From TrEMBL:
This is Transcription elongation factor 1 homolog. Keywords: Metal-binding, Nucleus, Transcription, Transcription regulation, Zinc, Zinc-finger. It is found in: Nucleus. One of its GO terms (molecular function) is RNA polymerase II complex binding. It comes from the Eukaryota. GO terms for biological process: transcription elongation by RNA polymerase II. GO terms for cellular component: transcription elongation factor complex. Transcription elongation factor implicated in the maintenance of proper chromatin structure in actively transcribed regions. Its main location: nucleus. PANTHER family: TRANSCRIPTION ELONGATION FACTOR 1 HOMOLOG. Belongs to the ELOF1 family.
Amino acid sequence: MGKRKKSTRNVGGSKKREPLDTVFKCLFCKHEKAVTCKISDGNATLICKICGQSFSCRTNALTAPIDVYSEWIDATEEVNAGA
Ligand SMILES: [Zn+2]
C-alpha cells in the first residue's frame, strides 16, 4: 500500500507578470482607467481621456507612472484644501 507521494512542488511555474500600472482612475470624473501617463525626458503628463483633466510634473529616472499619479493626488488635495 505504500504509494509514495511525489514531492515535487511546482513553485511559481506560470506566474503572471503584471505590467506597471500606467492607467489610473480620474480624480475629477471618477472614471476608472481613464487617466493615462506619459513620461518623457524628465517630464510626465497625466491626461484623462474622459474629462480632459491634465497634470504634469518633473520626473527623474526613478519616477514611475504611479508616482506621478500620487503627485497629482497631492496637488489636487492642495487645491481642494485651499479652495
Ligand atoms: Zn476625468
